[in-house]
Each structure stands twice: as C-alpha cells, then as structure tokens.
Write a structure and sequence with these properties.
alpha/beta, globular, 7 strands, 190 residues
C-alpha cells in the first residue's frame, strides 16, 4: 500500500496558491482514478483506491503547511505504511516552474511542510516529488510568492501538467521512478 500526500493549506483563500500545488496534484489523481470520496480523518482529507493494481491512500493534511507531519503520522500509523511507501507532492522553489525532481530522504530544504513530516515521522526515507514553482529572485519575497496564486500564464498550463503526471502515476509507483520524471520532461513543453 502507498500513501500519497499532497501538501498545501486548507481553505478557498489558498486554493490556487503556488504552495498548494501538492493539493492540486492529489485532487487530479483522485479525479482521474475515481477516488473522489474524501473523508475527514487524521486531521486531513483522506480517500482510498487503486492505481496500477496497487492499493493507495491519498491524504491532504488540513493542519496548515507547518503542521503537515501531524496528519501524515496519524495516517501512516493507522494504515501501517512505512516511510519508503510514502510519496509527498510539494512545491519546490529551487526548481523552475513545471519541472520536477524526485528523491528519497534528504533534508527539508527550508520547506516547512517537509520539516514537520521529518519531525513527526522520525524517519526521512519517504519519497519527495518536488514540483517546481520557481523562485521570486529575492529571499525576502519568498513567503508572499508561495502564498500567491500562480500567474495567469502559469494557470493556463497547470491542468495539462497535472494531467500528464496523473496519467503516468503508475511509473511513479513502480521500481524505476526516473521513468516518471523522464516521461513528464519529454512530454510537457511550454
């Protein structure tokens, strides 16, 4: 069983923020795999289903970004999911918009949601799918940048990007996760 976690902040105010691209990804996966019956549980919104013949649980923590680990830990404990079977989808400032990288373990890179997950899981061996949102160019503008909506131009491309990732999710759940990154990189051009 896999636990797929999208990071973001709850509420309509944050819905289209760059910081909420993890929530957007989970919503896309849920829609494309007919898992839209989210329930309030583990201080988050949770749904279950199957993708590529694998049982999956999808989680959108409702604790706000800085406390995401509380929800992730409760959900992982309940389903007895090991960190190496957890994939966290999150925004990444240090990657250009619409680019992505995946890694297992490592540091939080200043991302408060990842810091919280690291703290609450006590194990950093979970997977991180780093969804590029770009950097505003000045560290003093980061907070306002991530808590603002994607630009109008970026918003035009988000549905296709999310759909392409969702369509190829079985590669992400497989042994060679780099196949997923390669397919998205080769097939998504703006």
């Amino acid at each position: 069983m896999w636990l797929l976690v999208g990071l973001g902040n709850p509420g309509d105010k944050y819905k289209n923020n760059r910081h909420n691209v993890g929530f957007m990804m989970i919503d896309q996966l849920a829609d494309d795999n007919m898992c839209t019956n989210f329930k309030s549980k583990f201080q988050g919104e949770v749904t279950e289903g199957r993708i590529a013949n694998q049982k999956i649980v999808m989680l959108k923590p409702q604790t706000y970004m800085n406390e995401s680990g509380v929800s992730v830990r409760k959900c992982a404990d309940f389903y007895k999911i090991l960190p190496e079977k957890i994939i966290v989808f999150h925004d990444e400032l240090d990657i250009a918009p619409f680019k992505l990288k995946i890694k297992q373990g490592g540091g939080a890179g200043g991302h408060n949601g990842l810091k919280s997950i690291d703290q609450h899981l006590g194990n950093k061996d979970y997977w991180r799918l780093r969804l590029g949102i770009g950097h505003p160019g000045d560290k003093n503008r980061v907070s306002g940048y991530v808590l603002n909506d994607f630009s109008k131009e970026e918003q035009k491309h988000i549905p296709d990007w999310l759909y392409l990732m969702s369509k190829n999710i079985d590669d992400l759940l497989g042994e060679n996760k780099s196949d997923f990154i390669m397919k998205i990189s080769e097939n998504f051009k703006i």
